[in-house]
Design the sequence.
């Protein structure tokens, strides 16, 4: 972290992720199956603007699918999803979902940023070019504007010095920090983090968690995180959701869900990961 560097941040109000404010997320009755495998089961989920929610649960329980449906990478079979009060789909009288118009979906989706387990950086572009790309191509920002924000964000994740390096020259932790900066570049009102430390060597986990703490401290974006880092979860989360068998089986403040779980399956899960 550290203070934003000189020209990049000077007087531009860049010390935030989304200048327009965070957005909430609402699922109502969302069901999603892959063949006979029902992964989300009539799921209701509310995340308030700027809230930090950590989702925990067994592997294969559908946590990633929650994030991917929020990002419109998967379409639910039924139910509705709203981001910042705007619907991604509408339900017809026959109960089937129709997507909203493609232009509307693109607009709603542009409020959401996602960081994946495996960084997915463009290998032939530098760190800075990776961060500048979407603001220019998708959001029509000028090169100068994209560069300013890109440098500010690389500085925020402690990588201003690596701006001109390509992913092949960076460590796993550095790559993931670039990926986080990249996902912040489009001023997301909601950020989704899918086990962003689980592909890293243990000694590189801390530097990535520290960047997530900095983003959380800004408090200007909603954060929905899937993680197995329970210490980190209890420190950062406003609320922890225990997810199993397609449903939220227990939720509450981290002290309660992680420290004093009520549900037998939560106890068993926490016993296994600790
Ligand atoms: P988690 O993130 O909790 O590990 P996932 O959401 O990744 O769980 O997956 C939930 C279940 O859905 C798993 O059984 C997985 O195999 C299945 N699944 C996920 N994506 C697909 C897909 N595109 N096609 C078929 N099955 C899938």
Sequence:
């Amino acid at each position: 972290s550290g203070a934003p560097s000189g020209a990049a941040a000077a007087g531009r109000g860049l010390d935030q992720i989304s200048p327009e404010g965070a957005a909430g997320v609402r699922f109502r009755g969302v069901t999603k199956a892959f063949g006979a495998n029902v992964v989300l089961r009539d799921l209701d989920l509310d995340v308030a603007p700027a809230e930090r929610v950590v989702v925990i649960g067994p592997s294969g329980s559908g946590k990633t699918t929650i994030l991917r449906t929020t990002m419109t990478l998967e379409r639910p079979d039924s139910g509705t999803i709203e981001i910042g009060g705007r619907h991604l789909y509408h339900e017809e009288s026959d109960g089937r979902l129709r997507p909203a118009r493609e232009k509307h979906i693109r607009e709603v989706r542009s409020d959401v940023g996602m960081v994946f387990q495996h960084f997915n950086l463009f290998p032939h572009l530098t760190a800075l070019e990776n961060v500048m790309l979407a603001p220019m191509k998708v959001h029509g920002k000028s090169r100068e504007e994209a560069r300013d924000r890109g440098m500010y964000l690389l500085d925020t994740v402690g990588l201003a010095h690596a701006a001109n390096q390509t992913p092949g020259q960076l460590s796993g932790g550095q790559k993931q920090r670039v990926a986080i900066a990249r996902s912040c570049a489009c001023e997301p009102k909601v950020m989704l983090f899918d086990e962003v430390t689980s592909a890293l060597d243990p000694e590189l986990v801390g530097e990535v968690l520290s960047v997530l703490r900095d983003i959380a401290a800004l408090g200007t974006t909603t954060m929905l995180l899937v993680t197995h880092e329970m210490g980190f979860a209890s420190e950062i989360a406003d609320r922890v959701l225990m997810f199993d068998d397609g449903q939220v089986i227990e939720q509450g403040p981290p002290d309660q869900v992680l420290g004093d779980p009520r549900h037998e399956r939560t106890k068993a899960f926490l016993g296994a990961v600790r």
Notes: Residues 34, 37, 39, 57, 59-65 surround adenosine-5'-diphosphate (CB under 6 Å). The CA atoms of residues 92 and 178 lie 41 Å apart.
